[in-house]
Design goal:
Keywords: Metal-binding, Signal. GO terms for molecular function: metal ion binding. This is Putative cation-transporting ATPase. The chain is of the alpha+beta class and 91 residues long. It has one domain: Alpha-Beta Plaits. Helix content is 41%, strand content 31%. It is built from 3 helices and 4 strands; from the N terminus they run αβαββαβ. The chain has a 4-stranded antiparallel beta sheet with strand order 2-3-1-4, with helices on one face. β2 and β3 form a beta hairpin. α2 crosses α3. The protein starts with a helix and ends with a strand.
Length: 91
């Protein structure tokens, strides 16, 4: 029982400490653009969280997963002629 509690606590801590990356996207000017991008980016494997608002894509990779900016850009490009112009990381 103690092991189960320890594993659960560890998993919760990893989720709480997950890195969040925010990408600013050029060319995304409306909610229709955001929906198109969200449909591509948020279906990517390895994401814990994914949200898209006008001008921004916010992702948190699952523990142990790495997703490069190039991979995010490739998914964004499937939705149209959009380009990542800046990114920032936070915990």
């Amino acid at each position: 029982m103690k092991k189960l509690l320890a594993v659960t606590a560890l998993l919760l801590c990893q989720t709480a400490l997950a890195e969040t990356i925010t990408y600013e996207v050029e060319g995304m000017h409306c909610t229709s653009c955001a929906r198109s991008i969200k449909a591509q980016v948020c279906k990517m494997d390895g994401l814990e969280k994914c949200d898209v608002t006008v001008g921004k894509v916010i992702v948190s990779p699952k523990a142990g997963s790495t997703i490069s900016q190039d991979q995010i850009q490739a998914a964004i490009s499937k939705a149209g002629e959009y380009k990542i112009i800046n990114s920032s990381k936070s915990k």
